[in-house]
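Rotation project, supervised by the postdoc (A.L.). Task for the rotation student: set up a whole-complex structure prediction and record inputs and outputs verbatim in this book. Inputs entered:
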Amino acid sequence: MAVNGTRPQHDVALLACGRDAATVWERAVAGRTSAHDRSCPHCQAVADDQRLLATAVAALVEEAVEPPPSLTERVMGAVLAELRPSHYLPLPTRHGHARIDRVTAAGVLRHAVAQMSALRVRSCQIHLIEPSRSGDTSGDDASAESALGSPMVRIDISVTARFGADLLSATARVRQMILAAAEDLLGLPVATVDVEVVDVFEDPARRPH
Amino acid sequence: MTDASTVEGSDTVVAAEELDDLTLVVRAQEGDTRAFEILVRRHQRPLYRLAVRLLDNRSDAEDALQEAFVAAWRRLGGFRGEATFSSWMYRIVTNRCLKLLRRRRPVTTLEDLGDPPGPDGASPEHSAERQDRAAALQRALQNLSIDQRACWILRELHGLSYEDIAAIVGASPDAVRGRLHRARCNLAEVMTPWR
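Outputs recorded:
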């Protein structure tokens, strides 16, 4: 294509007819050529180049380039090999010690709540509330000790909610389910469950047709 | 233990694979390796194609992609959701490939470019011609400057916007537009025998 200069701000050549070569190319891609584009030999040369490359690009895109099935396995093998050290939560027992990995415990809680179609759990964090050593029993933290002497936990979860769901009852129900799962399935004494709705999602199955 | 892969609701079944990227990222940030595995499976295909086109070598692309995903796992704590996970991964993979390319050889110019394979008159079959055309373009791509190649592949093969490409390669949208146009001109010139 014939060019006669560049526009410094774009660093793109101007055609001999004064048109910006990149703009002419993009118009050709979009199929929005002007009357000038169709009659000007310089602009037509750009459009010819665009068609030439478009055919080759289509051929390149058609080529089967698939990641090997072993790739995910290799990635996850490397990820698992350098897992961060586990953090455990003590479980109340009458005899000996028991503890549970926090990630595992969070997975149990997410699974319990996953039965709700109106909400999806995004974050689930379980925090130990250390019993007060000062003897002051006025605050929540100070009294956060179960009957068996184990520290209680605070659970923070964030959820995304289905658009149109009744958020008040949904968040109340999710709190109830988290409490039940933590205490019945894990045996963790729970002081508080904080629920935060951080986003909404559309359920394609419920979208009106 | 991690989340079960499928869960049943009262009137719907939601697979963990159907969760949005951000939810999976947050879960992975909190140590859920299963969530990260779903992200890897979901995004590996376009990222692998990107690495193959940039590096022109499937084995190198596989290694680069594996390293990129492991780097992403390590840096996941710094992901704040300003960009999509996809854009973030495109940036990591592109930068890793560009680093490999710069280490692999000096930047070549059009002067280094040999004659591209032209249309083969002895193989008139359409599919064979398309394969040859694709091979010629792939070869021509390797002779672009690294920066032009990255911009062209991200735009023409992955359909990214100038703004997204600019964020990935660390340049302004105008600079991306310039590189892309020069890449197109260079490729069109090399592909002239296929006209």
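Student's summary: Chain A touches chain B through 61 residues (CB under 8 Å).
Supervisor addendum: The helical segments of chain A are 21-30, 35-39, 41-62, 70-81, 102-113, 167-186.
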